Amino acid sequence: MADPLSSIWYPPYWLAIALPAPWGLNLLTILHLVLGALGMVYFFRLMGVSEIPAVAGAIVFLLMPKIIAHLGAGHITLVWAVALTPWLLVFEMRGRKASGVFQKIFLPGLFSGLVILADVRWAAFCWVLWWCYGLFSKDDKRNGSIWINAFWKGLFTKFKQSIIGLFFASPLLLPLLQFIQLSTRKMMSSADTLTLSLPPGNLFGLIFPNLGGSAEWMTYFGALPILLFISLCASRTGWKMTRFWLIVFFISIIFSLGSYIPGIQIFASLPGFDLLRVPPRALFLAGISLSVVTAIGLEEFQHSKSIKTEKGMRLILSGSIL
């Protein structure tokens, strides 16, 4: 009951128990991936992205090579938890415009707890993304004390949502915390925590796909997302539209390097993260950010009337095909 990978407290897993193996696990995995892609489409539509770019961004998420690699490595619950992340962002965005407690507080908190129950290893990364998105992604042009008051109000909302999430996940967390006190994992050093840090040379995999080796070190996300990423970074308008997700991408890449980054041991010793291993799992955040970049980038090109932009789009599409 204290094993975070047993999934016994994750309600959808009961379907896999009821069906014959391995059909139950396969069906549940397919459902998670499809629902995750639909969640991305819904998220993009809430952002104001039109249908075709939204579907394209969702396909980048659905066919993320890192997801396929981890499925091949048998990390099924990890993939389930990653597939829930778009819906947590959906309910976060819907909660901003809602006035009722159910949509504003309860639903985001419920899904944050569901991510923990699916796979607590992904929950730490997911919760950091969720908190940062809720606090820093708003296009708020207010200044001074008004912005500060809005920030503290958002912070208080996040605490209430998180309490609900922790309460929902308590059937797993309470025995897990007791088990940790008796486990040798508590004795892990910073070097143990940073096991399988991403070698800097593997960053070439962002451009040149490496289809072999460890699933943890899979860094290829597709040609189109990377080309759109470069294009938006080079554009002042593109950077303004996607700066939160571009920053998420850079931070996740840096964190994935783990022991190769000086001073990262301090971060690895923080409560919660000191019980985790394998920093390259933050690359899932890079994949999510690139799916957002794809949707927004295609949306921007679709509505641009500039001849220069149209030529740039043709060049990007040609490069991705090559």
Helical fraction = 55-70%
Oligomer: single chain
Annotation field: number of helices: 15
Give the SSE order as H and E letters. Answer: HHHHHHHHHHHHHHH
Low-confidence stretches: none
Rg for CA atoms: 20 Å
- What is the averaged pLDDT score? 85
Q: Could you describe the largest sheet, including whether it forms a barrel?
A: none
What's the total number of strands? 0
User: How much of the sequence is in beta strands?
Assistant: under 5%
Structural class: mainly alpha
- Quote the distance from N terminus to C terminus: 50 Å
Shape: globular
Written account of the structure:
This protein is mostly helical and 322 residues long. Helix content is 69%, strand content 0%. The chain has 15 helices and no strands. The chain is globular, with a radius of gyration of 20 Å. The chain starts with 12 loop residues before the first helix and ends with a helix.
